[in-house]
Predict the structure.
Amino acid sequence: MIELEGVPELVDPVMVAAFEGWNDAGDAASAAVAHLDKEWKGEVFAALDAEDYYDFQVNRPTVWLDGGVRKITWPTTRLSVVRVGGDKPRDLVLVRGIEPSMRWRSFCNELLGFAHELGVELVVILGALLGDTPHTRPVPVSGVTSDPDLARSMDLEETKYEGPTGIVGILQEACTHAGVPAVSLWAAVPHYVSQPPNPKATLALLNRLEDLIDLRIPLGELAEDSRAWQLGVDQLAAEDSEVAEYVQSLEEARDTADLPEASGEAIAREFERYLRRRDGGGPPGGPAGHATDGGDSAPYLRDTPSERTRPPRPQQRPDPGTEAPGGTGDTDASPESGESGKSGKSGDDSSEDSPE
C-alpha cells in the first residue's frame, strides 16, 4: 500500500536510486545517494515492507539501544524527498536500500507506483562496477539507457549488454516497460582496491548526475576525501613493486585508449562545463563545486567504512577466450555480473556493451 500523506507537490521531480550489494562496488553508488540525503536534509516518507523482499539470514536486522530501550532496524529500502530551491528549482526523490533477495518484479512495481504518484519525470539509477582502471586517473562514468530516443536526446549510450543482471538492470527495464524515462550511471572502481569507501568514485557519480539533471550539488568534503583516498592508495601501491608495475600498465592502457577523447569537441564540452559552474554559483543549501577527479504508468508485470587494507597482488589475467559479455580480453566481469559488486574480479569500464 502506498502512503504519500504529508508529501508536498514536487517540482520537476527526478528519482535517484542506488542499492547496496551486487552493483555497488566500493559502496560508491549508495554513498552518493546518502550524500544527497545528508547535504539536502532529506525527509523519509516511505519504506518498503522488509518482510516482502528480504531474506533476514542474508541481510540481518540490527539491534541497538535508544536511551536504554532496545530497538531493531530492519534491512529495507527507504524513500525520501529533498527540496532544491534556487533559480531552477528541482526536487529529488531519493531511493536508498539493499538489493532485494526476492520478488524483484513486485519490488520494481512498488517503486514505480511511488514514481507515478509523485509525478517523477526521470529515474536515474546509480551503480558501480569493478574494472581494469587505475586509481590515478579520473573515474570513468558511463551513462546508459534502454530508450533509443532518450539516448539521442541526452547523449547517452544505448545499452547492448547481455548476461546476468542485478536490480539496477531490472529496475531500468521495468521503467522502460512502464514508459518512464530511465538512465543508469555506472562508475568503474579499480578492482585491486575494491574495499569501501571509495569517495573518488562517489564524487565522479555525483559530478555526472549534476550534468545529467542540470542541478548544482553541494560536494561538502567529498573532494578532499577523494584526494586523501588517492594519496593513501598511492602510498600502499608504492610498497609493493608488483602492484606499482601493474598500476603503471593500467595507466598506459588507459592513456592510449583516451587519446581519441582529446578532441576539440571534448575540450569545448569541458570548457562549457567550467563556465557554467563558475557563473552559476551554488545552491542555497550549501557550497557547491566540481572537482577534477570525476569522470565524465502501467506496472511491470512480466513473467561498510573500514580501515583501508593493502591492495592485493594482481591476479593472473584470464585468457581472452574466457571474456564475459561486455568485456575485453583482459576481463572476466561485467557491470551486470556478480563480480561487478563485491568480488575481486575485474570488469572493463570502456566497452561499448558495458554498463547495463
User: Anything to note?
Assistant: The beta strands are 14-20, 43-47, 62-66, 69-73, 78-82, 92-98, 122-131, 141-145, 157-158, 182-190. The chain has a mean pLDDT of 78. The CA atoms of residues 62 and 247 lie 39 Å apart.
